[in-house]
Write a structure and sequence with these properties.
Number of strands: 20
Oligomer: single chain
Structural class: alpha+beta
Largest sheet: 4 strands, antiparallel
Strand order of the largest sheet: 10-7-11-12
Helix content: 10-25%
Strand content: 15-25%
Radius of gyration: 35 Å
Length: 459
């Protein structure tokens, strides 16, 4: 008999002991579905529960991906009317906010309060439509006086609305500086949104708690897409700043939270700062007065024609030909030349921009490429013209020539650095993109706040 064989009449071996059950607990998630079975009398409440289940699942997945604008929702003002194009966004609660048409909102009579402005927001909205007869509803038919038809459908869309905001000191700014002042305050508040310890009052010590963020009991269902400022100096009376408010959908809430908590800048906030500056820069440079004209050559020609001796020695036909030649010279720019813009009126601070993002792009005029000479490397012989005048004298500039890919890398590396204030000393690198021969590849340069890292070996 083998060991595995039991003798007749012998007791069976005892079963192995059951491992103790691990403790567990349950919690409802607010997502309830219909538990259907044969014989269930299907009613409207059951169909509504099916829809609610699918809706809550979709909202949970949408919220996990983070809020923000996906596409569209361009904002402008024309003839005193706010115009918002169609688009798609996701609210903080995870609801898709989709519009498929242009929405207009009259601004007549809208007056700001003290230090006031407006957020332009997209909010969820719905409306019932259609008509269907009520069948077999004994309580609602005709004794209740509600009629025998109802709206069987709900169209889910959006509502464009204005929410008033205030920023202390806004009304004390010059008209040209109000926009930059407000955006600087908005970006500054965004960086301290989740109490980043490196920038708070307790930055001298490491935090004692690193607990995950708590669940939000109730989150607003709106998405901001622009800031609206009153500006009587403009033809339409309003100024729109898109990127001061708009954040494109880019990261899940945990990533944004911990980046902010650790003193970093989320990518969507960083790109918004760059785009806000570029948008405002293009507008102020486009609206800047044209440079003064050098009329010296034209005046010399007019004085020559007007001399008595010249008039006596020329016939009418000859005088006509001289005037025609004069007109041709004006048209070709030979007699009226623009004066080169100097420092002061064309500086960014004079144009109302006193604070810049950590990195961005500036225009400059490429000069004719000089004959190659022995000495400096290509692209390092001279600084791009006009950059010093734009940024002012407080900024410590260093000029670098590099490939396009290196420009993109340098701009990306500046994501978490502080913004650039033009009224205080700050170190900035100007990056000139060049080709393989060292020649500029365009009429722009990049600027990047310089890295502040000083390393040493104690040994």
């Amino acid at each position: 008999m083998t060991i595995s064989e039991a003798a007749p009449g012998a007791a069976s071996p005892a079963p192995p002991p059951t491992p103790p059950a691990t403790p567990s607990a349950t919690a409802d998630g607010g997502i309830d579905r219909l538990n259907a079975f044969d014989g269930l009398f299907l009613r409207a409440e059951h169909l509504a529960r099916i829809q609610d289940y699918a809706r809550e699942l979709a909202l949970a997945v949408g919220a996990a991906g983070g809020p923000g604008v996906v596409e569209g929702y361009e904002v402008s003002v024309k003839d005193g009317t706010l115009r918002v194009g169609g688009g798609l966004a996701v609210s903080p609660e995870g609801r898709p906010l989709r519009s498929q048409r242009l929405v207009t909102l009259p601004l007549t009579g809208l007056t700001p309060g003290l230090d006031g402005f407006w957020w332009v927001e997209v909010a969820p909205d719905s409306r019932p439509y259609g008509e269907a007869p009520v069948q077999g509803s004994y309580c609602d038919d005709p004794c209740a006086g509600t009629g025998t038809t109802r709206h069987p459908y709900l169209a889910e869309g959006v509502r464009i609305q204005l929410a008033e905001g205030t920023e202390r000191g806004l009304d004390n700014q010059l008209p040209a500086s109000r926009r930059n002042f407000l955006t600087s305050k908005i970006f500054g508040a965004e960086r301290t949104e989740h109490s980043p310890w490196p920038y708070g009052s307790g930055r001298a010590h490491l935090p004692q708690s690193w607990t995950p963020p708590a669940a939000s009991p109730g989150r607003a269902g709106t998405v901001r897409i622009a800031v609206l400022l009153r500006d009587p100096g403009r033809p339409d009376g309003w100024e729109v700043d898109t990127w001061a408010a708009r954040r494109d959908r880019a990261a899940a809430p945990p990533q944004r939270y911990w980046q902010s908590r650790l003193g970093m800048r989320p990518w969507d906030a960083y790109t918004a700062q760059i785009l806000q500056f570029q948008d405002q820069l293009a507008q102020v440079l486009g609206a800047a007065p044209p440079p003064a004209a050098d009329l010296g050559p034209l005046l010399e020609q007019l004085a020559l024609i007007g001399e008595e001796q010249f008039l006596k020695s020329h016939t009418k036909d000859q005088l006509g030909r001289e005037v025609a030649r004069l007109i041709t010279g004006i048209g070709e720019g030979a007699l009226i030349r623009p004066v080169q813009a100097g420092p002061g009126p064309y500086g960014l601070q004079e144009l109302g921009i006193s604070e810049l993002p950590p990195a961005g792009y500036l225009p400059f005029t490429p000069e004719p490429e000089p004959e190659p000479e022995p000495g400096p490397e290509p692209g390092q012989s001279a600084a791009p013209a006009g950059i010093r005048e734009l940024l002012g004298r407080q900024v410590d500039l260093r000029y670098c020539s590099c490939a396009l890919a290196d420009v993109a890398r340098a701009v990306q590396e500046a994501q978490h650095r502080d913004r650039i204030r033009l009224d205080e000393p700050v170190e900035v690198d100007i990056l000139l993109p060049v080709d393989d021969r060292g020649a500029p590849v365009g009429d722009w340069v990049a600027f990047v706040r310089r890295e502040q890292r000083h390393c040493y070996n104690p040994g």
